[in-house]
Design brief:
The chain is α+β, with helices and mostly antiparallel strands. The chain is built from nine helices and 21 strands. InterPro entries: H-type_lectin_dom_sf, H-type_lectin_domain.
């Protein structure tokens, strides 16, 4: 229903307990319609909403969501930005929960089901499971699928990007793992090639920072972040830092073993590489078992790597509503050919019920030392059937190959 309302040109609300005429404003504020569980999506999903009175002879238009936005905000405490159409993903989950305020529904499970669209979650409706079980499933599905959009930072005057705040937002609890992958970067040729990303989650916010070493000139950087609840063992993730002595592989043990070997993907989140050789880093996984896997983050062909950090994400292989994969530019061209950009179309093995959220980050880089290090990986035109991926570099960068995981 949420998607139907989103695609509607206009929605009409008939208020059976509000009559037009003097003093209708008070009746409007006290209307039972605002206490319904399904009202939240009926208010937020459509672009245009018009309200009508219950007059028997001639029902009159009381106003629209746009004209009554101040009153609606006062009644519901929903921010006017959200009522104006700001993407709901921009509002913390805890805040969206507050908008519901003990919703009244005729069926108890609908107390959870009426919030599916608000959290961008798809799950089967099982009437008879009870309100508490439905709410627990909603919470688990949200934590499994919640991907934030890539956060990006720009520096226009050159110089180091050090302790730079990327993103600050509310999180559900301190029991949250933040997985980060590089998506966007521009470093000046002839200087150090180093970058480090960090995430610190507390009970009230999540602080993300990007650092570069003193000998690095970092003009721009960007990340994808994935927030995982530690209470949801179907989805696990963590950081792994490696130094030269630990190459070429590390054994990573899952915090909680899976029943069967899970799906695992890995993102590069930082590195310190030599500045006199081509930058060549490859992060891969192998020997995936129920309790552990092998993480390989290796340089090749004389490339020097002093330090690297990678984020890994593992999820139950049969988990519904989740998919992952790897895109390699070498699948589209030879590694000896230099091009400005690569793009392609990914088709999901099984279509989703609605367009999913897609996050992408790099796990392999192959760049010339004689030019700036500059790349960007992103997705576009996401539908229920697939999406378009794009990996490009700018300015004078020379790229031989990149791989991204999503």
């Amino acid at each position: 229903m949420f998607e139907w309302y989103q695609n509607a040109q206009k929605c009409y609300v008939y208020l059976s307990d509000v009559k037009s005429g003097p003093g209708y404003e008070l009746a409007f504020k006290k209307s039972g319609w605002f206490k319904r569980g399904w009202t939240l999506q009926e208010l937020l999903a459509p672009q245009k909403v018009e309200f009508f009175s219950s007059d028997k002879i001639d029902k009159k238009k009381l106003g629209s969501k746009a004209s009554l936005i101040t009153q609606i905000h006062e009644i519901t405490e929903i921010p006017e930005l959200a009522l104006h159409g700001e993407p709901l993903s921009q509002f913390p989950p805890a805040e969206r929960l507050r908008w519901a305020k003990n919703p009244k529904t005729s069926v108890e499970e609908d107390e959870a089901y009426c919030l599916l669209g608000i959290f961008g979650v798809f799950m089967p409706l099982i009437y008879g499971e009870g309100s508490q079980h439905a709410k627990a499933r909603l919470k688990n599905e949200y934590h499994s699928l919640h991907l934030t959009q890539p956060q990006r930072v720009y520096l226009h005057d050159g110089g180091n990007l050090s302790n730079r705040l990327l993103h600050r937002d509310q999180v559900d609890s301190s029991k949250t793992e933040i997985s980060i992958g590089l998506t966007d970067m521009w470093e000046k040729m002839g200087f150090g090639r180093n970058i480090r990303t960090r995430a610190n989650a507390s009970s009230s916010n999540c602080l993300l920072t990007i650092d570069s070493w003193p000998d690095t000139v970092l003009f721009r950087a960007g990340i994808t972040l994935l927030a995982l609840s530690q209470d949801n063992r179907d989805f696990q993730g963590a950081w792994s830092n490696s130094f030269p002595g630990e190459w070429p592989r590390s054994t990573i043990k899952f915090p909680s073993p899976f029943e069967k070997p899970p799906r695992v993907l890995v993102w590069l989140s930082g590195f310190d590489a030599g500045d006199t050789q081509n930058l060549r880093i490859d992060a891969t996984v192998a020997d995936i078992r129920s309790e552990s896997f092998q993480l390989h983050v290796t340089p090749w062909d004389a490339s020097k790597l002093y330090f690297a950090s990678a984020t890994w994400i593992a999820y139950r292989a049969d988990l519904k509503g989740v998919a992952s994969g790897t895109i390699a530019t070498l699948s589209y061209r030879s590694n000896t050919k230099i091009v400005a950009s690569d793009d392609g179309i990914v088709k999901f093995e099984k279509p989703f019920p609605r367009a999913p959220k897609v996050a992408i980050a790099v796990n392999r880089l192959d760049y010339s030392v004689h030019r700036d290090l500059c790349f960007r990986a992103y997705v576009d035109n996401v539908t229920a059937d697939g999406f378009q991926w794009k990996m490009s570099h700018e300015f004078n960068a020379v790229c031989f190959g990149r791989t991204s995981g999503l």
